[in-house]
Amino acid sequence: MTCDRLVCANCAGPIAEGRCAVCRAHRERLHQGNSFGALTPAMLIALLVVLAAIALVGH
User: How many domains in the chain?
Assistant: First the structure.
């Protein structure tokens, strides 16, 4: 989710601009809240390989 079209309830300004403390807090939370967005394709493939290996060993 991006904060491009979100409007702050405190100052009625776009959250992307960060006009007030509430805007800045929401913008920061949106950018930090997505932990899966930090996964690169290589890390995702490595994770899938490890999970497949665990499944084969466990079977």
Answer: 1
